[in-house]
Fold each of these.
Amino acid sequence: MMGKPDKALPTGWTTSPREALRVTNTGPIAQYDAASTPGYTGDKQAGTAALIERGAHLADLQEMLFANGRSRGHRSVLLVVQGMDTAGKGGIVRHVGGLVDPQGLAITGFGKPTPEELTHDFLWRIHRALPPAGKIGIFDRSHYEDVLPVRVHNLVPERVWSQRYDLITQFEREVVAAGTTVLKVALVVSREKQKQRLIDRLNDPTKYWKFDPSDVEERGFWEDYLEAYQTIFDRTDGDHAPWYLIGADRKWFSRLAVCELLIDALEGLNLGWPAATFDVEVERARVAAL
Ligand code: AMP
Ligand code: MG
C-alpha cells in the first residue's frame, strides 16, 4: 500500500477511508450498497460525534494550509463532489465545508452552462474556479457533468463527449502538477432513498425550492447514469486524482467520510507553520517597549 506507513486509523475505522472507499476497491457503482459504511464500524451517534471532533482537526489543518498560502506556499486542495439528485451534495458543502473557516474555502456550484460558458470549451469555467494557493476548493458538480447529462442526453455528439475523458485526465494532471491535491467523491444514493427524499421535498413547503420537476424525468435514466458514472471511474480514476465512492443513504456517514478524506489530503501535504519573516526576539523587545 502506498503512502505513510503506520499512520493510526481514525477512531471507528478498521481500514483507512482512502483504501475502503477508493473506487478501485469498492467494485462497480451498480452493485454498491448505498447504505453501507465501508471501513467504518460506528453507528449514527458515534459518526455524528466523530464529525465534530474530526472537524476540529480539519479546521486546524485548513488554517495551516491558509497560513502557507499567505507565505508564498503554492499548495491547495480541490474536492470534487458528484452524485445523483438528492444524494446530498449541498449537505457536504454545508456540513463539511462548514467545519472550517469560510475564508479558506472557494466553493463553486456548476449548473447548466450559461450562453457565455457555452461559447467556450467545457473546461473554461472549471479553470476559473480552481482554488488559489492556501484554499480548499469545493466543486458542487463539476466538469464531470459534461460526461453525465451531456452523455446521457447526447447534448453534444458522441465524438465530442467521448474525447472528454482523456481531456479531463490531462487537465487534472496539470492541476496536480501545479500544486493542487485533487480528490473526487461520488455520493451514491439508492433508487428507493431518492424516491423517499423527493417525496419528503413535496411534503414540506420549506423544501419545495429544492424540488425540480425535471429530476423526476432524470430518474427514468437511472441505468444510463450508472453507466456514465462507471465509465468516468474506469477512465479518470488514478493516484493523481482518485475517485472515492461514498454511500449517501446515511448522510451522517457520507459527511464523516468526506471529512476524513479531506484530513488525509491535508495531512499528505506535510505542511508546517510558516517561519517568522522577522526576528522574533527583536519584535518582542519592541512590543515590550511600547
Ligand atoms: P442543481 O445542482 O440542482 O442546481 O442543478 C444543476 C443542473 O445543471 C443539473 O440538472 C445538472 O445536471 C445541470 N448541469 C450542470 N452542468 C451541466 C453541463 N455541463 N451540461 C448540462 N447540464 C449541466
Ligand atoms: Mg437539482
Amino acid sequence: MSATATSGLHVGQALRRKEDPRLITGRAQYVDDITLQRTLWMALVRSPEAHAKIVSIDPSLALERPGVHSVFTGDDLGDLGGPLPLAWVPPGIEVNNPEHWPLARGAVKHVGDPVAVVLGEDRYSVIDAAEDVAAQYEPLPVVTDPEKALEGPPFVHEQFGTNQVHQWSLGGGDLDAGFAEADVIVERRIVNHRTAGAPIEARGVLADYRAGDLTVWSATQVPHFLRLFLALLLGIHEERVRVIAPEVGGGFGSKLQVYGEEVLAAWCSRKLDRPVKWIETRTENMAVAHQGRDQIDYVRMGAKRDGTVTALHVKIIADLGAYNMLLTPAIPSLGAFVMSGCYKIPAIQTDITGVFTNKCPTDAIRGAGRPEATHLIEVTLEQLALELGMDPLEIRRKNFIPKDDFPAETAIGVVYDSGDYEKTLDKLLEHVDMDSFRREQEELRAQGVYRGIGFSTYTEICGLAPTRVVGPEGFGNQAGFWESAMVRVHNTGAVTVYTGTSPHGQGEETAFAQIVADKFGVDPEVVEVIHGDTGTGPEGRNTYGSRSLAVGGEALARCANKIAEKAKAIVAHNLEAAPEDIELEDGKFAVRGSPDKGMTLAEVAGAAYLNKVPDGMEPGLEDTSFYDPENFVFPFGAHACVVDVDPETGKAKVVRYVAVDDCGNPINPMLIDGQVHGGIVHAIGQALYERVHYDEQGQLVTGTFVDYALPTAAEVPSFETDRTVTPSPVNSLGAKGVGEAGTIAASPAVTNAVIDALRPLGVSYINMPLTPMRVWEAIAEARGAGLQGGVPA
Ligand code: MCN
C-alpha cells in the first residue's frame, strides 16, 4: 500500500463539524431524551462496604412504597447465561478471574457493588425506594494498597489464595548485557495514579423487550459488543437484539464496556414485559464506572556517559480493582508494546503484575496503558539527563530512532510504521526559543517566580486491529479486529455511509463525509454518516484505541473506491468510452481530455438504478467493505509545557503549552486540533489535579466533582498546536490516529516542567498528581534535608 498524500478538495480542509449544529442547538438526542410508553425506572441498591458478606436483603419496606413495582437480587438472576464478560487476556498465562455478576452474589467486593435492583413507575421514587431496601452486611477485611495486597491475606477473592490477578512479561534484547554496558543506571518508583473517565453525560440505558425482540439504547462506545454479549447472556439470537448508541456525551474509554446495568435493564424488561430505563447519577458514575491507570512502576534505565540508553527494565504493579471487566488485565500490556518510546533501546523488559484490591475495577481510559508507558519513559529520560548533566533535548536526539530506519523494529519486535522524530522536535523548537526561555527563567527566579519547562517526545500505538496481532492467534482477544463500511449512493446522488465505528465526540460524521466527497466529486453536505446502530449497516468493531479513522476510515475509502470503479464503468458504458479513460474532474466522472463529456454522481446513480449498466453488471450503486490492516499505526510528536510554581503554596499553573503532533495525513486539521486540545486537558488534569482516592477502608473519598478536580478553561492556557506530516504506509489514506495523542504525550511534559521549575530548590523528582500540597511538601522536604538533587519518596 503506498503512502501517498491524500489531500483533495475536501480532505485536508478544516471543515466545520457537521454534527455541531444539532449539538449546540439542543436538538441532539441522548438516552435520557428517549421516552417510551409504560417505562419502568430502575435504581440500584449499592454496597456501602468495600468488602463484606451479604447477610440478608429485605425489600419489604421498599415494596410498600407507592409506585414501586419489583425488587430483584442476585439470586433472582439464575437464568443469566453467565457472568459479565472478560474478553481480552494476555496470551499464554493464567488469569485469576472471579465471577462478576450484574448483582453481587454472596459478597460485595467494592463500594458501589450492586446487590439489588428496584423497579418502579417514577424516576425519583425508585431512588428513594432503593434506600429502603434493608441490606445487611458482615464486613470483611479490606485491602486497598496493591503492594500490600501482594504480600498476603486478606484476599479480595478468597478462592484464589492470592490477590495476584496475573503476571505477564514482554521483553527483547539482552537486558543483563545492556545494564552491564551502562555507566549510569537511574531507578525511580513512578506512581501513575488512578483517574476517572468523567464524561459529561454519565451512563444511561433504556431497554425494551417486545415480542422476542430486544432493543437497547445505551450511552456506549461499543454497541456491537454490547449486542453480542446481551444476546449471549440473555439467550436471545443476535439478530433479534438491536443496540443503538444515540448521542453519547463523551466516553473517554469509560464507555468501552459491557456493564451490569445494561444487562440488568434488558433482563428486567424481558421479565416485566415493560421498557426499563436507568440514568446514572454523577455520584454513581464516579464510584462504579470503570476507572483507569493506577500503576506503580519500578523503572531502571541504563545509559552510557554520552547519554546512549542501553537498557530499560520496568516492573509494573497494576491495581486492577475488584474484578476483571471487559479488557482489564490487558490494559497495562498495551503500554508494554511501546516501551521503547521513540528511542532505539537495545534491550527492554516489561514485567506486569495485576492485583486485586477492594476498589472499582480499572479498564481502558483514554490512552489505556500508553500514557502510563510514555509517562515513565519521558520522566525517567529527563531524570537520566539530570544525572548526566545533559540537556533533556540532547539526550532525546541522541536516542531517537533515525528516520531512515523506518519501518523500524524495536527490541520487543514491534514494527513502527513511519516516523521522523527529529522533525517534530525541530518544529517544536521553532515555537519555543530555548535560549530566550532559559534567560527568562533566570530573570524570573531572581524575582521569586519559579518557571520551568518540560518536554515529551512520544510515539504511540493505535488504529486498534489487526486480527493477526490482537485476535485469538495473537494477543489473545477472542474477536477479530477489522472495520467495516457500507456506502449507498441514492438516485439523487446523495450518499449514505454506514460505518462500523461508533464515534461519540470525535467528529467522524465530518471527516468521513470529506473522504467520500473527494472520492465521488460531491459536496460533504450530501454525505450522511450513520453510526452507532447495530440495526443498520454491517457488523462493526466500534470506537476506541484511536482506530476509527485509520481502520474505519480506510474501510470506507476502500468501499468508496469500489463504487467509484463501478461508476467509471457505468459512465464508460453510457458515453461509449473506455473505463480506463474515465476520471473524476470538477465534480464529474469525465472522459479524459473531454471534460465536458461526463456524468455527475447523481447521473451515474440514475443510470445505475435504471439498469443502464454494462452487460453482466448488477444495477444499483452501493457496496460494503471490511478492512483488516497489516499493522497498527504509530503517531508521534513533541510537546513542551511551561509552568509557574508558587513555592509558598506549591501551586503549579500551566502558562504555555506547545504541541507538535504527527498523525500522518490530516483529514481535517480542525478535528485534529480539537482532539489534541481535549487530550492535553485530560493529561494536565491527571498531572496536576485529578485523582481517584480511596481511604484505607476502601471508601471513595473523591466521589463528586468537588473532590475530584477536573481542570476547567480557567486552569489551562490557550494551546499552541502545529503538525508535521509523515504518512503511514499502512493504509491508503496515509493516516494515523490522534484521539489519544494529547493524553499520551502531556503528563510527562507537565511533570518534567514542574521538576525543572523546582530544581533550584533541590527537588529533583515528584510523583503525580502535583497538587499544591504534594509540591509544597516536596519543597519543604528538599529544603529541610538541604538536598541538592534529592529524591523525595
Ligand atoms: N483525524 C483526522 N486526521 C487524522 C487523524 C484523525 O482528521 N490523520 C480525525 C478523525 O477523522 C476523527 C478524529 O480525528 O474525527 C479522531 O480520530 P481517531 O484518532 O481515529 O480516533 P477515534 O475516532 O477512534 O476516537 C477514539 C479516541 C479515544 S480512544 C478516546 S478514549 C477519546 C477520543 O478519541 N474519547 C473521546 N477522543 C474523544 N473526543 C471526545 N469528544 N469524546 C471522547 O469520549
